Amino acid sequence: MATFVCKNFILSNFFRNVRQISARQTPFIWRSYTTDGDNKVPKIYTKTGDKGFSSTFTGERRPKEDRIFEALGNTDELSSAIGLAREFCLEKGHTFTHQLDKIQCVLQDVGSNIATPQSSARESHLTRTKFTGTPITDLEGWIDTFTEELPPLTNFILPSGGKSSASLHIARTVCRRAERSIAPIVRSGEADPDVARFLNRLSDYLFTVARYAALKENNKEIIYKRPT
């Protein structure tokens, strides 16, 4: 795991537990350090955002309501929602939780890419935060495997099917919001197109795995019926 200590950092909570999941992807942890004599003591607070501004990885200072930080916040929330769903799935002994682990790691890479606006990035920035399409292929393979075991979908279903399934549906809706907030950033050329593709496919995965969880737990999914 590569850790890079930078004076400026963004969304420390988002990057705090970042992990490297492949040799080609290098996520980052932004941390601030204060000096106590000869010892460097890590601090979670830096006070650099107290005036409503934060920094991108390229060093730009932007308002916290900037669309980049909005997208990062949504992606952070998505990872948290998946983490909660994972806990419910672990309690039920589901065998796909390692996939959720990997997805959370990939979301850290998504954040790194978003936090590096290409208009202000140097080549070294782009190399470190480049996002590839490999995780998209993983999602598609998992979706196809689950779909083979699921009954055909002939009706609209409501988020239901037990805690595992319902929490995965919540993660799916957060994923859609994250995708919507990242789409304009990608269209403007500030982030890699594969980031948007990944989130689009991830929502499909979360829908499918939610149904799969309900199936494996023998829980009934609620079918939409037009109120009379």
Helices and strands, with pairings:
Layout lengths: L11 H4 L16 E5 L2 E5 L9 E3 L5 E3 L3 H25 L5 H18 L8 H7 L4 H16 L13 H25 L5 H24 L12
Antiparallel strand pairs: 1-2, 3-4
Helix pairs in contact: 2-3, 2-6, 5-7, 6-7
Task: Explain the overall architecture.
By secondary structure, this protein is mainly alpha-helical. Helices cover 52% and strands 7% of the residues. It is built from 7 helices and 4 strands. The protein is elongated. The model is unreliable at 1-34 (pLDDT under 50).
Defining key terms:
mainly alpha; disordered N terminus; single chain; 4 strands
How would you concisely characterize the structure shown here?
Helices cover 52% and strands 7% of the residues. The protein has 228 residues and is mainly alpha-helical.
Q: What fraction of the residues are assigned to beta strands by DSSP?
A: 5-15%
Structural class: mainly alpha
Proportion in helices: 40-55%
SS element count, helices = 7
**Mean pLDDT reading:** 84
**Looking at the structure, what is the overall shape?**
elongated
| N-to-C span | 57 Å
- Determine Rg (CA atoms, Å): 19 Å
Provide the low-confidence segments as ranges. 1-34
Order of helices and strands: HEEEEHHHHHH
Report the major sheet: 2 strands, antiparallel
Instruction: Give the total of beta strands.
Output: 4
Reading side by side through the largest sheet, how are the strands ordered? Answer: 1-2
